[in-house]
Amino acid sequence: MSAPSESVQNRAQAPARSVWKWSVGGALVLLAAYVIAAYVVAPLVWIGYAHRHPALDKIPGITYTGDDHPGDPINVALIGSEADLKKIMLAAKWYPADPLGLRSDVKIAADTVLARPYDEAPVSSLYLWGRKQDLAFEQPVGDDPRQRHHVRFWRAADVDQQGRPLWAGSATYDKRVGLSHTTGEITHHIAADVDAEREHLLGNLQQTGELAERFAIDGFHKTLEGRNGGGDPWHTDGRLGCGVIRSQ
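RESULT FIELD:
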């Protein structure tokens, strides 16, 4: 019997080579899928899980005035103890606001006339979860107390697995003093771009080195524009800026 020709041998070996190639190709695909799942998808899922504070799903999008008119929008959320929150705000050069009253009213009027800074000028009360702000901070702009960065914080009832509360915040920029468009009372008027103030505050906090993590929640606001109790317009991209304060 004659030996098989070379062409016959090649045809016999072709299926084996095809199976080997498919096996190698399948193994490479599985390896790539494992790498993506283990080193890309899983860390992102874990980060998302780690950032989920139980109170994040319960934050209203808007505050209210004492007479139940819509106030300023919520645009920031910080996670940490009250002591840690106060510490990082002071480190970022944001000062606790004085309480409202005759003394503060006289002081802010005198400082406005004399163009003196008032680092602790009071802020009016807004309401979330049925109560006024728990803490308020501000950052002066030059020597004019009519202009300032300021933020109000409300402590959520829930804490995370580490026992840390969440602080829902409304950060806005006061651009001038004038009459309320709705009541005619003297008030601060805010700048419409509340996202810029959100980024300003979180940027200041990040520069302190005491902000352990910073992330954002897309689609927090479904309504992207409105007016506050003083009639001032505001607009947002809908994101909630969040930060985790480094524990001391």
